[in-house]
Every structure is written in C-alpha cells, then in structure tokens.
Amino acid sequence: MMVCALPRLTIVTTNSCPDRAGWMQNKGAKLTLFGAVLISSLTIFAVHFQQDQERENMYKGVLRDDERRRKKLKQREEDLEESRRKRELYERVQSVEKAPE
Asked: For residue range 6-56, what is the model confidence (pLDDT) as tens digits?
C-alpha cells in the first residue's frame, strides 16, 4: 500500500500513485475492452444500417401503392368511357324513354 500526497489531500491507494501507474496494465483486460467496444460499435452500425434499409423498403411500398392506384384509376376511367360508348351505341339503335316517376 502506498500513500500519495496531493495538495491538502491525502489518498491511500492499493496501486502506486496515478502519475506512475500504467493505464490497464493487464493485456487481457485491454483485449476484453477492445473486443467489447468493437462488438458494440458493430452492433450499433448494423442496427442503423437495418433501419435505413427498412425505411427505404417502406418508401418503395408507398411508391408501389401510388402506381397501383394510378393504374386502377386509369382502368376505371377506361371502363367508364367504354360504358359511355356502349350507351351511345344502344341509344342510337334503340329508343330509350325515361321511366315515369
């Protein structure tokens, strides 16, 4: 046990004074810390990458929905136009009277 004297304060430590001690002298501890930081960093990167991919896929889904709606509206307009043409044709061939109310 060593006593380090600092101005107006005396600290008793089990190691040597902080200015002489190496930071994390054990290689195993250094490797463990490095491994934990590396795995944490990779996990954070992977989660952000996955979120970006999901956001992009969701946006593509919105674009597909818009295109499907556009096609459906166009088909309905074509059906309506065809129905109008048929009605004109039938009205030319047959006389149509309004029903009494």
From this structure: 556 555 555 555 554 555 678 989 999 999 999 999 999 999 999 999 999
3-state percent helix, strand, coil for the chain, nearest multiple of 5 = 65, 10, 25
Q: Residue 12: CB partners within 8 Å, gap ≥ 6? A: 1, 2, 3
DSSP letter (8 states) at residue 78: H
Q: What is the pLDDT of residue 94?
A: 84
Task: Using DSSP, state whether 10 is helix, strand or coil.
Answer: strand
Task: State how far the Cα of 43 lies from the Cα of 36, in Å rounded to an integer.
Answer: 10
7, 16 in Cβ contact below 8 A? no
Structural tokens at position 96: 């149509």
Contacts of 16 (CB under 8 A, 6+ apart): 2, 4
Q: How far apart are CA 51 and CA 18, in angstroms?
A: 44
CA distance 12 to 80: 92
